[in-house]
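W.,

You were right to be curious about this one. When I first looked at the sequence I had no strong expectations either way, so I just let the prediction run and decided to look at it fresh. Below is the sequence, 577 residues in total, followed by the output.
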Amino acid sequence: MKLRIRIILLLILAAVLPLLAVFVSMSVYANRQRQSLVDMKLNTVYGGAVSSYERIGKSTLSQMEQLANDPTLTRFLLVKDETGYIDQEGLIDFAGDTKQLLNLDYLAIISPDGKVLARGHDPGLFGDDISNDAVFAEALKGQKVQSLAKIRDSGEDILTVLSLTPIWFENRQLIGVIAGGISLDEDFCRHLRDLSGAEIMLVEGDLLLAKAIAGQGDEVAMYLQDKQTFRTKLQGLWYTFSRYPLKDYSGNKIADLLMGVSTQDLDILFDNMRIIYGGFALGGLILALIFGFFLSSGFTRPIEGLTWAADRLASGDFTARVSYAGRGELANLIDTFNDMASDLEDYRRKLIESERIAAFSMMARKVAHEIKNPLTPIRIAIEDLRRAYDASDPNFAAAFGQSTKTVLEEVNSLTRIVDEFSEFAKFPSPRLAKDDLNDIVNTAIPIFSKLVEHGTIDITLTKKSLPVMADRDQIKRALVNLVKNALEAIPSTGHVGIKTVQADKYAILIISDNGPGLAPSVRENLFTPYLTTKSGGSGLGLVIVKKIVSEHDGKIKIADQAIGGTVATIELPLYQN
């Protein structure tokens, strides 16, 4: 982006930011005030609606308690004709009259064995056994029950606030149960809306059971959300709803009562305020564009040249310089920049030379140290062989065999050291392909088959596949290296675990042991090249492992376990289609 454009943008920001700050502050304040008013209104209607709902249950229970002590009802249940039957017709008439008198939607009288003797809401239906219904079964045990339950009426299940009271004769003999309730239908919702001033809806999961608001039920249900409090648009108006769980007698939620208040008036006020302040911001933007265009052209060119040179310098071109024939602070700045660039060029040259010398020196010391260790046994073996030869030692043949064996072993050690350094220097980039981490682990198991059979190594893999983009040979090599390190750390009775798991978007490989753990000095230098605690080690094993994991966009962590031992964790990104 050119400097002139940046200056124009800066002027725009200088003009617009204060207005924007005021706009944002006013918006935040208005939102808070709006939310405060909405919360206050919602809390008021919420409390009113919940109280009204709870009063329905308490009132119905009180009515059932009074009916349970009604001598007329007691007489109907106790008095039988000469054939041994109660006055069924009279009991049905009593139930119907009582239902109308108490303005109930449901009224039933049940015998002690669970048979319905009369229904006030459906006089023609009686004699069915409802003792298996959990709510009625609780009342048949002699308990007063207040619960939300589904009552079958007119071919459909209707949620009903149900109150049941046992009917006792002389406080010792259960002679029946009286049950009454109010249906939670659209009449209930409208009644509750009139009492609380809130829009009322009754939902069961995603199903809209009843509502007081206008509109088709399916259309309204589309905009409801499964949240405690949510904002939605219904019939072109914005509402904020809160839900109250409706539960049965055992505490299980059956449905939710949604109570909502309209926020349309507050939304209109907020939108108008936003339009006004948006107009101020737009005016500031236009003025900033005009002034920025005229003010930026005078001093952008030398600064753009300075920017170009700085970019070249940042990209590694330390020969970049700026030419400027003017005077003043800008000319001083450019001269200072050119001097700095010259100093950086000299410093970079010296730094590269110093780092190269340091790297060669470190490599030379390490190679010399590693090569010196095998040379000492070779020299001793040759000197022993020469002494035996000069002294015509009769055991010369045996000495010759032992000395040549020592020399060959140490030469092999030298060859291995040279190969390790050579391999690290030319370690290839991974050839990534879709693979399964569990399959990769399984291909490495045969290397340790005897240890697995003896129980020294325990392998636990996830049942489902762990797809990754990986170079199978390199990941296998990293695994083998970590397992060998773990085996070298444990005692003869020790144990090594290999495990795979999935966590979020990563496939994780875990290698653990119950060895002595990591010393503090070792823990700080785990991935430092050429540092090792093992005799004959090159100090490159964990460096190569980290290189492999890093080039797979993964992470490796090695730490002590709380229960003892060490655990190495490799995280590789799961393959995403």
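Here's what jumped out at me. The chain has four domains: 58-183, 187-266, 298-426, 433-573. And, maybe more interesting for your project: The CA atoms of residues 189 and 212 lie 5 Å apart.

Coffee later to discuss?

I.
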